[in-house]
Design goal:
This protein has a 5-stranded mixed β-barrel with strand order 1-2-3-5-4. The longest helix is centred in the middle third of the chain and has 23 residues, at 150-172. It is elongated. The protein folds into 2 domains: 3-108, Nucleic acid-binding proteins (OB fold (Dihydrolipoamide Acetyltransferase, E2P)); 153-268, BirA Bifunctional Protein, domain 2 (2-Layer Sandwich). The chain contains 6 helices and 10 strands, in the order βββαββαααβββαββα. By secondary structure, it is of the alpha+beta class.
Length: 269
């Protein structure tokens, strides 16, 4: 299959009815109705139902489809169809359509899962899978599975959108994003430094920055005037509700301004 032809599952709409598409993703859930097989195929964009119908799908493809299980990674080709009246699923954005499969390639199989990844019901009105009862330690042990869950995916996407919005706004206000060094000398801050031994200079250490404070002041002296950075900061201290040993902060510095400028800038942001 030509990967360049691939489209995202969650971007299909009723306008695509009649179109042949190539999809790739993970088996979120499946139902076997005695030869008629329904699969929820999930990728980063969302979920779409794919159907293995003996009337349309070749027999060998139906046989391969019957062996699919949760979190198998697959690529399918098929035609987008309008769902029959009464079979729509309002619980997913593509609930008015489905894809009838003509080709199937299993990219990777999956062992039994330590917890459910699926969060969507296959049938309208059915209860969705719950993952709140799964321990955090187990989720972190299988982090690659946890990230597949739509809730986690949406959190990461939201973080990306926030960063993108911040960058666009500060750029419009004349700020320049500049990366400052991570390996540096120890500087007086409010916590202990994380130290990194130097291979080139034995018995010497770098310190990971608790903040870019000195570097942004150098930038102001150097005439950059308006600086910002999504700064990675490292502080060797006990956990607090609003602080972790490693975190990201929006770091801003500007010259020739007053307090009102900063108030307006941050409030607008």
């Amino acid at each position: 299959m030509q990967c360049s032809e691939r489209v995202f599952c969650g971007r299909l709409t009723p306008d695509d009815v009649g179109r042949e598409v190539l999809l790739a993703g993970w088996v979120d859930a499946y139902r076997d109705h005695g030869g008629l097989l329904f699969i929820h195929l999930r990728d980063r964009s969302g979920i779409v139902q794919v159907v293995f119908s003996p009337e349309v799908t070749p027999a060998q493809i139906c046989e391969k489809g019957a062996a699919l299980r949760s979190e198998y990674c697959v690529a399918v080709r098929g035609e987008v169809k309008q769902r029959l009246t009464g079979t729509e699923n309002p619980g997913i954005e593509t609930g008015a359509i489905e894809v009838v499969v003509t080709e199937l390639e299993v990219l990777s199989e999956s062992d039994a899962l330590p917890f459910s990844v699926s969060e969507k019901a296959m049938v309208a009105g059915a209860p969705s899978a719950e993952t709140d009862h799964v321990s955090e330690d187990l989720r972190l042990q299988y982090r690659y599975l946890d990230i597949r869950r739509p809730t986690m995916r949406d959190n990461l996407t939201l973080r990306h959108r926030i960063f993108l919005t911040v960058r666009e706004y500060l750029d419009s206000q004349g700020f320049v994003e500049i990366e400052t060094p991570v390996l540096t000398a120890s500087t007086p801050e409010g916590a202990r430094d994380y130290l990194v031994p130097s291979r080139v200079h034995p018995q010497s250490f770098y310190a990971l920055p608790q903040s870019p404070q000195l570097f942004k002041q150098l930038l102001m002296i150097g005439g950059m005037e308006r600086y910002f950075q999504m700064a990675r900061c490292f502080r060797d201290e006990d956990l607090r509700p609003n602080r972790q040993p490693e975190f990201t902060q929006l770091d801003i510095e500007a010259s020739f301004i007053d307090e009102e400028f900063l108030y307006d800038l941050v409030e607008e942001l």
